[in-house]
Write a structure and sequence with these properties.
The chain folds into two domains: 20-63; 82-138. The protein is built from three helices and no strands. It has helices spanning 28-63, 92-116, 122-138.
């Protein structure tokens, strides 16, 4: 009996090469020619031009009904130039040490609770995840 397909977690990008094993083996010379074409695009027009051409080619392939992976990029552009971004408002080294102390304290509390009753270990992973979310939200 086959096992059900594993679902991937939300936010995890799909592996763009997962289809390769299902496709017929291409002609090695043809693949090499296409790779050389990409090299020439980058060499002559730069990385931006090569990316634009490849995105158009992928779009055309999708419009023809081919199941090809998406580019994995968003339309978001940072509107603040790097030179105009304000410096980080805190001391990252001290904040990192504080995070380590807090997580160490949580680990010790869970270990101590496990001496009294088994089955409490999962709460440590929950705390670590929640702490990361709060940290991102506050900073």
């Amino acid at each position: 009996m086959a096992s059900p397909p594993r679902s991937r977690s939300v936010g995890t990008p799909p592996d763009p090469y997962r289809y390769l094993a299902q496709l017929p083996e291409p002609d090695g010379d043809e693949v090499e020619e296409w790779a050389d074409s990409v090299d020439a695009l980058v060499e002559v027009g730069g990385a931006g031009r090569a990316q634009r051409v490849l995105l158009h080619v992928l779009g055309r392939a999708r419009s023809l009904g081919l199941d090809v992976p998406g580019p994995g990029i968003t339309d978001y552009l940072n509107t603040i130039p790097v030179a105009d971004e304000p410096p980080y408002p805190g001391d990252e080294a001290i904040e990192r040490r504080i995070r380590h102390y807090i997580r160490w304290n949580a680990a010790v509390m869970v270990a101590r609770a496990n001496r009294r009753s088994d089955g409490l270990g999962g709460h440590l992973a929950t705390y670590a995840s929640a702490a990361t979310l709060y940290e991102v939200g506050f900073n």
